Amino acid sequence: MQHFTGLLRGLLMALLIVVSIALWIVLPAAALLGLAILLAAWMGLTRVGRQAAAITRIGIATLPQRLGASSVIIIGIAGVVGVLVALLALAGGLQQTLRGTGNDDTAIVVRGGASAELDSGLSRESATLIGQAPGIARDASGQPIVSAEVVVVTNVPKKSSGTDANVEIRGVGPRSWAVRPNVRIVEGRRFEPGLRELLVGQGARQQFAGLEPGETIILNAQQWQIVGVFASGDAHESELIGDAETVAATYRRTGFQSVTVRLESPAAFDALKAALASDPRLKVDARTTRDYYSRQSAGLSKVIRIVGIVIAAIMAIGAVFGALNTMYAAVNARAREVATLRAIGFGATPVLVSVVLEAMLLALLGGALGALIAWLLFHDYAVSTLGANFSQVVFRFDVSPPLLGTGVRWALAIGLIGGLLPAVRAARLPVTTALRES
Amino acid sequence: MKYLHLIRAALMRRKTRTVLTILSVLAAFLLFGLLDGVRVAFNSGGTLAGVDRLVVSSRFSIIQSLPESLVNRVAAVQGVRLVTWANWFGGYFREQKNQMIIFAIGPGYFDAYPDYGVTPAMAEALASTRSGVLVGKAVADRFGWKVGDKLPILGSIFPNKATGETTWTFDIVGIYQAPLAANRALEQQILLNWKYFDEANAYGGGQVGWIVVKVADPADSARVAQAIDALSANSDHETKTQTEQEFNLSFAKQIGDIGLIVTAIIGAVFFTLMLLTGNTMAQAVRERMPELATLKTIGFTDRQVLALVFGESVLLILIGGVFGLVLATLLMPIVTEASGGMIQMPPVGWRSWGIGIALMIAVGAIVGILPAWRAMRLRVVDALAGR
Questions:
Q1: Do residues B312 and B288 lie in contact, with contact meaning Cβ atoms separated by under 8 Å?
Q2: Which domain holds residue B83?
Q3: Residue among B23, B99, B269 whose CB faces A315 most closely
Q4: pTM of the predicted structure, to 2 decimals
Q5: Contact A220 B64 (CB under 8 A)
Q6: Number of domains in chain B
Q7: Same domain for B78 and B197
Q8: ipTM over the 0.85 cut-off
Q9: Which long-range contacts (CB under 8 A, 24 or more apart) does B166-170 make?
């Protein structure tokens, strides 16, 4: 019978842990804050709560005596949170950069079925037809604000490894400056149409070798000069841009890869899409640039996120065992103290709460430490990977406040699990034997 | 060895602690097993890479092709045993998420790549059917394709000359199965006749994506590669000839420095692990001071006590570590299987096992050294008195 109740208690415990972790993950931050306030109120106002507060204070005061053991929880959890935050920041940075590249004011037209510009091909006639479609904004001279673009890839060595990487060259039309007003020259000057001149994006200049203004690079056996640097704050910074006609001539291309257009208003997109779809001479897909670029990051950032969470989860399991070890040791070391408290009238609940709180406090410290390390090491650190156009996309780690919050949440969850079982043992400690033990 | 039971007794002294420590060591080495396989796969350029194969591609970029006329000139280079070529085709089946790995392959491709497990009859069927394709078993199973089926593909780059659109219809003439488990990734591919591709695509003919060369003597590769590159020097189609391994690696490197990321994560994991087990060992020895003193009293030498504690620490890590690696070894094929071949988890190789065991002993030694030293130096009188 005793065996049976023990089993039942174990099952209940496991259920309790699972439920609390599930709650922990779903609850919004505000609810968690509310929970914390509720706990504080309980500890301040009720008799049992005040007892719990008192025991917790004693526990925290004696922490320095158990510094070595306690640091296991802190460092273990810092490791988990550091890795988790770093990998999520990697995924977040990629998503942020690509999502920020698009907006609802511009649309990109590619060949029907093409999943990226590099897969696409549009004839000159198609490009002209697309420019005449309704919904496209016009400039002061009445010309549609469109840019028919040629996208090619060239090999440029990466600074970090010295090995060749695929770098995107975008040949843009004369009105591209109006299509993308966020592109501004930060060094040098614009390229001259008709000349073999290129502008390099800030990100590309930083990641790849030999892309400083004044240097020349070889495109398809022809020399091109870099005449300036541009910033746009988005994925285009990973590219080099030049004049579409000249790039096309170098690569002996007759058509284009895509046409990007400025819309009269975000609402005009539907009209444009419908007009292009109904034109029998065209077989193209139109998407807002926000839609197009968001989709590009979806796959890879999801993979990085899943990998990050799986790795962190395995590490977290390790950290839970470490925390359990430490808290069991702490409970054993304080057995007499706890028994004394129980003997002079303290209840079991305050003991339980105090042990859990102590573990969670250590976990909080660890989580904050891990998040801080991830932020110091990685925030804004630039990296590049292979993007949808089979070319490098430069982006930065984005250690955002919500991510830090996620990290701390994981830390507290580990602390909760690591503290709960030892806390139950402490609360159920038989007072007489504990007092007798030396 | 005769003191093994003493070490066992020491480990069993506090079962909870030992079990918890072993479990966290297990988690660390499970992670190591999973990640090291990925690191090795990314750094070796895949298991398929043959040492006697060279890949000739455009020096300028991946999107540029080479003239077909180059193939014969490459074949004439001394030391070249076999030449074939391929082109990237790509595309998807029905929905954009079903992206396919499709190559147009030149004649003799399977002589250069016996790894596919394509039988001569299958190769013959492909050669004699203009619009035929060979399909890997993994991808055929995923979509339920059979020999004789029509396969509609929305090609990624090349429009069909006849229609001007990128829709292509192929006939499945064979389903191949890679004989080696390590080459299962090949079963994700679809292979079509380069000749048909060349005639039917609207972007003009006579172009090959890359040339595959089998050299007579792998030791001679560097010279052959140079001779091939010299053929097209200063032309508009300069080539870069690499071993297949280098060629594959250059792709892996473009995704990112996976090796560095993995090493950093493993580093963080092991730093944490060392701290954790180091603390456990210190605790275990501190508690057992009187017992160790007793051992010394009954005649154990300082060295024997040192060895006992040291052995305990190494054994603790070894138990957890071996379980972790076994779990990783078992888990990898399950992940690959469960994903229907979509995720190819590299199996835990003997190299990972070797590095893993070395790491276990190293971690065990590092965390054991201080407590062991302390145990060796303890003064019997003080320890027995509980001072």
A1: no
A2: 60-237
A3: B269
A4: 0.86
A5: yes
A6: 2
A7: yes
A8: no
A9: B166/A111, B166/A112, B166/A113, B166/A114, B166/B91, B168/B91, B168/B200, B169/B131, B170/B131, B170/B132, B170/B133
